[in-house]
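Subject: Arylsulfatase

B.,
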Amino acid sequence: MRSLAWLFMLAGIAATKSLVSQQPLAAPPRPNVIFILTDDQDAHLNSLDYMPHVKKHLLNKGTHYRSHYCTTSVCCPSRVTLWTGKLAHNTNVTDVNPPYGGPKQRISQVHITRVQRELPSCVAAGSAVNTYYTGKLFNVHTVDNYNAPFPAGFTGHDFLLDPFAYDYLNSTFQRDREPPRSYEGEYSTDVLAQKAYRLLDEAVAAQKPFFLTVAPIAPHCNVFMNGTGLDDNPVFSFSAPIPAKRHEHLFPDIQVPRTPSFNPEYPSGANWIKTLKRQNNTNVEYNDQFYRTRLRALQAVDELVDGIFTRLHQYNLLENTYIVYSSDNGYHIGQHRLQPGKSCGYEEDINVPLIVGGPGIAENASTDIVTTHTDLAPTFLQLLDIPLRDDFDGDPIPLTPGQIEAAQDERQEHVTVEYWGFAAGEGIYDFDLSAYNNTYKALRIKGKGYNLYYSVWCNNEHELYDMTSDPHQLHNLLSTDTTDIEPTPHIILNNPLSKVVPRIDSLLFVLKSCKGQVCIKPWRALHPGGDVTTLKDALHARYDNFYEVEQTTQVRFEECARGYLLKAEGPQFDVHDENGGNGFVRDGLAWDTWV
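Prediction pasted inline below.
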């Protein structure tokens, strides 16, 4: 069997050909995991509806986690969180460019070494599991620094490199210890597919459990880069995604879903978002075309998914392989009058696809239990039977029907959302410069009888949306604009906002600087006795004095900073760890002073 698998690998079998029949491979002691990670794919613009192979292989055969969230809605911070199981305030990778980006773009070699030391812990287990990766890893992983140092933790890799990572027709990849190779004129996702199939063949030939990540750039916009984020004056030109030639004709009349938040007649939101002008017809037509190109660009990803499942079937590995499909962050086009992009805390940007299929996973199922990107690294380790790290900010995701059922009462109800700095528009219509102050802390919380989004911006504006009655986040319950005030007091869980807001602000106060188990069970930091585990518990009248009188410190910022600077972050929640040390208050102005 080993020699037969080896022959298949050497043959370089094309994506459209079928493998000849073969003897089933012996099941390894651990299962395999394949992680497909798209770039900027939405959960609220219906993109999954246009991916028939994802529907056939994953949605129909797996479990769809409809309440899965990223915690920082831009690629590098989100991807570092995903691989380390830690929130961005615990990695200090908070941007895509220096001085706050990561990890390749960080100037500090200490930081590069730290992140790369943590990365393999989330995807490898020494010699027990082989690990493979192809596609986008991080921004500013370039043709000049790809080997300084090589990313750690992989048996085999074939990475996209800047400044060509987002150029659909001019990509550059770098394989293992080889020099970079340009694929000018070839379609990036098709090149990636062949690399993914080769790595899968290699993984099978090795006859060991494997973890394979496949990370296409679609449906991210096309970016021409004259330089990289490491250069003094790089020039980036953003345009709509480019589909493969065979898909250019598809979806000619499709439009961005006309939900109530799409280009609304009246402004919504807070901070700079509330100042945006309504888009004119020309702008809307451009954004509809932008949307169509995103759907077209995803078709090659859909074919890639089909190719992976075809090979798993032919290798007789479907019964022993978990397939996880997700995206680094969500996306908006026109919601709240926003131009195409991400970086906001609204539902379109933070709620992202997550679908899991494999042995023991319920078929054609969906769930609304709350999960986040901090939970993916623990989930991967658990699937691979690798001990979890003590410092994860997330928990393994319930996968089986029994686990999901138990999670209805036991699972965390909250998502920590945080962002620092610039929010970039990616179409031909740019944001104004007020988007530089796109720094905020936010809380997404969902439980029985409540579904809320709460945020504090760096200018200390507050937002609160009851997403049961206002799912499109059009009416800020904490707006100071008299035209927004409801004629009757708003009630949540039979309580007025005057009781609800102090509870959720205290919860966010804990989460904005939490570490480890405190991020997973933040109510315990406020109620060490364990008698409060949900917002509903905290709203009991016996805690009114604690929240409305004793808790005088609220979430606030001292200034709007582009990165995680403690002098700008305002007061930090103070809790002592079991060794008597201070668990959260740090004595420095920036992460690099205390790493």
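The two ends are 49 Å apart (CA to CA).

T.
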